[in-house]
Amino acid sequence: MRGKLTCDKVNEYITSLNTMAAELIRIQRVSYNKLSKEQKDCLMEYKNAAYYCPNETTDKIFLLESEVKRFTGKTDLVLRALNAILRHCGRIREIRGGGQNRIIFQ
Prior knowledge:
The protein has five helices and three strands, in the order H-H-H-E-H-H-E-E. By secondary structure, it is an alpha+beta fold. A three-stranded antiparallel β-sheet has the order 1-3-2.
């Protein structure tokens, strides 16, 4: 593992990513008129992020790094280390562009 990260912390991060992905899928399936203002903003941000990389994000579940930071409350250094571990294991892939970083599940 990288730095002082333990397997428990990595597993906790993976669980939070899965929770975020499930919430995103739920938001996408609900009618737009039934969503709250925060959920509408989140959905529009994801659609804008998908617009910049349509070839790489089509039919794939991805999360925005800014949303992950806000949801998990982790700092930049810890997130970079956790993402590096998961990239090395082949669980995620990162796409940078359009002013946003996207984390795509493999």
